[in-house]
């Protein structure tokens, strides 16, 4: 079996709003995020990890913020598109691991719903997708509640020729 690995990172600032989209799930919060799309840092970091594993550029290359088509877009569209790019080259996600960094909202109660949504979109098993969270102990921009960040690592697999 052939393997490739990629990593991704994304940040969005908090702004006015009543929810944040994380891993395709609407998480109630007293803030929203500032973004061109729905601002889902989990899916953006994951897309970048998937694209990075095959050196296919990054999310901004495939979905430019200058393109009005992606205004308020559902980031699951990006995820499914990236999955298609991998699969048409013979690859699929082996497993992915995401860490969300924020003081709030509390991610734990929503993590399994996010995993199920992502696993469904990637057509992989639930156990192939990990989504977890940490605070930054009130340090830095996430610690001050100015924004939310996510880091993703993704292994791609392809059956040997
Ligand atoms: N936004 C968050 C942050 C953390 N968690 C959970 O709390 C645990 C403790 O966080 P520390 O930063 O103090 O280590 C963490 O392991 C997560 O399980 C969360 O759900 N949402
Ligand atoms: C997702 C895109 C879509 O235009 O815009 P944003 O929602 O602002 O998110 P970002 O993480 O900055 O990635 C760039 C863009 O591809």
TrEMBL record:
Entry binding sites for 4-CDP-2-C-methyl-D-erythritol 2-phosphate: 10-12, 36-37, 58-60, 134-137, 141, 144
**What GO molecular function terms would the record report?**
2-C-methyl-D-erythritol 2,4-cyclodiphosphate synthase activity
Keyword terms, alphabetized: Isoprene biosynthesis, Lyase, Metal-binding
Q: Does the keyword Lyase apply?
A: yes
Record-linked InterPro entries: MECDP_synthase, MECDP_synthase_CS, MECDP_synthase_sf
What superkingdom heads the lineage? Bacteria
Report the EC number(s), separated by commas if there are several: 4.6.1.12
What CDD domains does UniProt report for this protein, alphabetically? MECDP_synthase
Pathway(s) of this molecule: Isoprenoid biosynthesis; isopentenyl diphosphate biosynthesis via DXP pathway; isopentenyl diphosphate from 1-deoxy-D-xylulose 5-phosphate: step 4/6
| Residues binding a divalent metal cation, per UniProt | 10, 12, 44
Annotated site residue numbers, Transition state stabilizer: 36, 135
Ranges for the 2-C-methyl-D-erythritol 2,4-cyclodiphosphate synthase domain?
A: 3-156
Catalytic activity as recorded in UniProt: 4-CDP-2-C-methyl-D-erythritol 2-phosphate = 2-C-methyl-D-erythritol 2,4-cyclic diphosphate + CMP
Cofactor annotation comment: Binds 1 divalent metal cation per subunit.
| The protein's required cofactors | a divalent metal cation
> Any keyword S-adenosyl-L-methionine?
no
Biological role stated in the UniProt entry: Involved in the biosynthesis of isopentenyl diphosphate (IPP) and dimethylallyl diphosphate (DMAPP), two major building blocks of isoprenoid compounds. Catalyzes the conversion of 4-diphosphocytidyl-2-C-methyl-D-erythritol 2-phosphate (CDP-ME2P) to 2-C-methyl-D-erythritol 2,4-cyclodiphosphate (ME-CPP) with a corresponding release of cytidine 5-monophosphate (CMP).
Note the subunit structure: Homotrimer.
Q: Which family does it belong to?
A: Belongs to the IspF family.
Q: What is this protein called?
A: 2-C-methyl-D-erythritol 2,4-cyclodiphosphate synthase
- What is the scientific name of the source organism? Luteimonas rhizosphaericola
| Taxonomic lineage | Bacteria, Pseudomonadati, Pseudomonadota, Gammaproteobacteria, Lysobacterales
Primary gene name: ispF
